[in-house]
Amino acid sequence: MNDLQAKDDIQFIQEMIERTRKITAGSWMFFLVWGIVAILGVAGMYVLEIFEKYSWIWLNWGVFVGIGVVFSIVYGKKIERLIGARTYAYITTGHLCFACGMAFCLVGFVFPALNLYSYGLIAVLISVIAGILVFTMGGIYEWNLLKWCGVIWWLGALGMVFIHENYRALLFIPLMIIGYIMPALVLRSMYRKERD
Amino acid sequence: MCPEKLGQLDPVIHSRIRLAVLSVLISVKEASFNYLKETIRTTDGNLSANLSKLEEAGYISIKKVFKKKKPLTTCSITEKGRKAFSKYLKVLESYVSFKK
pTM here? Predict the structure, then answer.
């Protein structure tokens, strides 16, 4: 073996490892579904507020979050079968999503119900956690667009502070479109290009 | 490290397909036969033969199960395989840095 071969072997090992770190087929569906679920949840919440059905807002969120969770479990299993491997990146992402999901529930449901803070703060805290989720995923998969989406979430959280608390959650809709649905569509086109 | 150390390169790993298999398995918890085949871009027969050699050396473990009446082969790297791969990589890296 010569110097060139040794370098070539190291490069080959790096390339093989890189292939296992690619965002895999179907990942875009999680972003898209959660983006749509959250937008519908916010829209539902405002409709209920217009009709002054405040006690139904919890049910509204419960239903939409439930749909998202059931979809994630079922589709996650399907994707795992389809990929045929449990990469460490995939396992880490799963743990990250679960951890952020728990944080969303505590911050969005439990703490406000315990009167720890006003309801107006929910949207701000949720945006901060969404930023952590998206930014870290961008780090795991080395995808800069996702990291920027995370930054946009944090900027959105900051922007919410200057908006009247009754309208804060409305900022979720453009944030969801930029921070969740846009990467989903980019991922889908990347996956289709790769497949073709 | 002197270049003579390259003679210490593990002959079991020192093959393109087997090196590729270990490189993939080091970054996944477990992988199916098809995943390995697609990632490494090789044929069934070639992969199968190389997997057997790695299994014989104790570097990987192969699990064969049936899911919905379909055979499913999954592979994972063993501790021995992990150590051998790490040693192989160190020899390569030290050679490259020696040349610098």
Answer: 0.76
